[in-house]
Amino acid sequence: MPPDGTLSDTDPILGCDQEPIHIPGSVQPHGHLLAFAGDDLRLMHASAAAEAVLGTGLAAAFGQPVSQLLAGMACEALRDGLGRLPAAGPMQFGRFRTAAGAAFQAIGHRSPDGHAVLELEAEAEGGEPGADATLEGLYPGVRDALARLGRAASVEQLATTSAAAVRQITGFDRVLVYRFEPNWDGIVVAEDGNGRLPSYLGLRFPASDIPAQARRLYEVNPQRLIADVDYVPVPIRSARPGPTLDLTFASLRSVSPVHLEYMRNMGTPASMSVSILRGDGRLWGLISCHHAVPRRVSFAARNACDLVAQMFAVRVAAREEMAQAEARAQLKGLEGRLIARMAAAGCLEGGLLAVPRDLLDLAGATGAAVLTEGGCTLAGRTPPEAAVRRIAAWLQERGVDEVLETHCLASLMPGADALVDTASGLLAVPVSRIHPSFVLWFRPEVISTVTWGGAPRQPDEPAPDRLHPRRSFAAWAETVRRCSVPWTAAEVAAARDLQSAILGIVLRAAEERAELTGRLERVNQELAAFSYSVSHDLRAPFRHIVGFAELLREREGEALSDRGRRYISTIAQAAENAGRLVDALLNFSQMGRTALVPIEFDPARLVAEVRQALEPEQDARRIDWRIAPMPAVWADPAMLRQVFQNLLSNAVKYTRGRDPAVIEVTCEAGEAAFTFHVRDNGTGFDMAYAHKLFGVFQRLHRTEEFEGVGIGLANVQRIVERHGGRVWAEGRLGEGAAFHFTLPRRGEPAAETT
C-alpha cells in the first residue's frame, strides 16, 4: 500500500484478513504525528503536515531532539511524559499551543516497535456534545451512566443503557451495541438514535465485515475515530529508509480504504468505535457510533466512552458468570447421581443409563448413546445404532480426545445431512484412552430465521478481483436449517466434568483389576507348582502298584481264585488310569511353566507327523483324511504339535463306528491371524454343553464309551491362548464336531500366564 493509504492497480490482491492495517503509512488529517527514538528522543518519523507545529521543514527536523523541536510547547513536560510512557496504551499530556497559537490535545504512546509517539489532535470547534468536551464537563454524565448500569437487571438493559450513555456523551446520530457470536458473526443487540440514520437493531452481520486482524487490533487498541470518511490521508515521512512505523496504538491511524468504502456504502460519513473486552482481554463486542455528517470527538470524550464500555463489560461478565454458575449448580445434582450409579454398577452403560432421563437432562439433549468396547446402548431420540457407530468412527478418525460440541454436525461430518431429525447437534465425550468409547448426546434440527444487515457473500461465490466491501445493508432474511439449539457453556462444562469422573472411575477400576490380576497370577503360580509337585510325586506310587499287581498275577496267579485274579486286574487297570491322569496333570501344569520358543514353520508337515503317529489307534478302520495346504506360521512347534495331537486324537476316537470316518484339517489366512479348523463326522456333542469342553476334567461322554481323562482340550486352550489366539468349538449330536483356533501373524506372543 502506498503512503497515501490507497490501493493501486499494481498492488497484490490480499484477502481482507491479510491487509496490514496496523502499518498504513499514513494518518488522518485532523492532527499531527511525531515519532522519536533513543534516550534523547530524536525525531525519526513525522506526518507530512507536521511542519506546522515544528516551525521548520521535516528535512531539517529529522534527527533533532524533542527539546529543540518543540521549545515553544512546554517542552519539559512533553519530554518527561514521552520518557515515561507505559508499555501499551495512550497517555494524555493535556492541552498545548504552538507558537502560532493553534491549540492541540497532546497524546503519547509507546509503539510496538519501540518509538515514543506523540500525537497532536487539533481541537474541534464548539457546538455539539463531545466535540470539545473536557473530563470535568463529562464527569456528571459518566457518573449517572455508571449508576444506571449498576441498576440494569439484564444484558439487554445493560446494552441499551450503554448505547444511550455513549450517544449522550458524544452526540452521534446512532449508537449500536454489537455482540460477536462464537463464529465472529455480529448481532446488534441494542441501539440508541435520533432517527437521522436507519435502525440496525436485531440485524446480523457476517464475520467478514470485521476480519480477524481488525478484531485483534480492537483487542489491543480499544478506541478508533474516523472523523470524516472523505479525508485525504497524510503520509508519514521517515528520517531514513526502513520499516514502516507501527501505528497499532495511534489514535490518528489512517484506516483501510476498503473500510472507508464500506462506510460510504453504509451512509455514515463519521464513525467511532469502542471495544467491549472480557476480563481475559478477548473481544465480546463493540460500541459502534455513526453520524450523518463529519464529526470530531475529543480524546476526553472517547475516554469517557471507554469507561462506559469497561463498566458494561464488567456487568455483563458478572451476569454471565452468575447465570453459568446457577446452571452448573442445577446440573451438579444430576452429575452426582450419574457418577454414584456408575460407581455402584461397575460398568459405564449400566450406571449412566439406569435412569436415562438424568443422562439426557445433564446436557439438555433429546437423545444419548453410550458406546463401549462391549456394545452400543441408546436412550431417547437417537439415530439408528449403525449411524451412531459411524459417528463414533468419525470421531475416532479425527482423533477426538477432548469434549467436542457442535450445533451443526452436517457441516463437519460427511453424510450427517441424513441425521438432522435426530442429530443436528452433537456433544461428544471420549471416555477411554485405549478403546473407541464415547458418551454422545444429540439434538434435532431447529429451523430458524436470521435477519442479516444485507445479504452476506456466499462461500461458493467467486472472489473479487480486488478488495471490495459490501454495498447493501438492506435487511435480508435467511432460513437456517441443519442446525440445533447451541449447547450452553454450562452443558459443555457438565459433560467435561462427567468425562473426568468417568476416566477417574475407569482408572480406579483398572488399578483394582491390576491388583487382582497380580494376586491371581501369584495364586496360579503356587497352584501350578503344587500340581507339578503332587503329580510328580504320585507317578512312582502308581507305577509301583501296577508293577506289583503284575508280579502278583504272574507268580501267584495259579493259587488265586478267578475272583482274586479279577480283583488284581481291576487294581492294575485303575492304577494305569490314575498314572495316565497324573501324567496329564503334570503336562497341563508344565504348559504354564514352559517358555514359548516360536519359529516360522509349515504346520502341514507337523499335521502329517501327528497323523502318522495316530495310525495304531485307527484299528484298520477306513479314515478319509482331508488335509489342505497351509501357510507358514510363527509359533512354538512343540506346543502346536500337542494341539494337533489332542484334536486329531479326539477326531479319530469319536469317529468310531463311521465308515468311512472323515477328518478334515484346513487353515484360512486373515489380515491379523490364521484360523485353523479340525472337523469330523463323528458322534458330535450338544451345543448346550459347549462351554464345558475346555475345562479340566470336563467330559461330555461316558468313560465306558470313549476313554480319556478330560484334560486334552484344556491343554489345547492354554497353548492357543499363550500364543495370543483363541479356540472354540461347534457340534451337533450324531453329526460331528468342528474345532477352531487362531494364531496371530508373526509378532510377539501373548503375555506369559501361569
UniProtKB/TrEMBL annotation:
Residues 533-747 form the Histidine kinase domain. SMART domains: GAF, HATPase_c, HisKA. The keyword Transferase applies. InterPro entries: BphY/WalK/GraS-like, GAF, GAF-like_dom_sf, HATPase_C_sf, HATPase_dom, His_kinase_dom, HisK_dim/P_dom, HisK_dim/P_sf. The keyword Nuclease does not apply. It comes from the Bacteria. Keywords: Chromophore, Kinase, Photoreceptor protein, Receptor, Sensory transduction, Transferase. Gene3D superfamilies: 1.10.287.130, 3.30.450.270, 3.30.450.40, Histidine kinase-like ATPase, C-terminal domain, PAS domain. SUPFAM superfamilies: ATPase domain of HSP90 chaperone/DNA topoisomerase II/histidine kinase (SSF55874), GAF domain-like (SSF55781), Homodimeric domain of signal transducing histidine kinase (SSF47384), PYP-like sensor domain (PAS domain) (SSF55785). It is an enzyme of class 2 (transferase). Residues 154-310 form the Phytochrome chromophore attachment site domain. Its EC number is 2.7.13.3. It catalyses: ATP + protein L-histidine = ADP + protein N-phospho-L-histidine. PANTHER family: BACTERIOPHYTOCHROME, TWO-COMPONENT HISTIDINE KINASE. In the N-terminal section; belongs to the phytochrome family. This is histidine kinase. It comes from Paracraurococcus ruber.
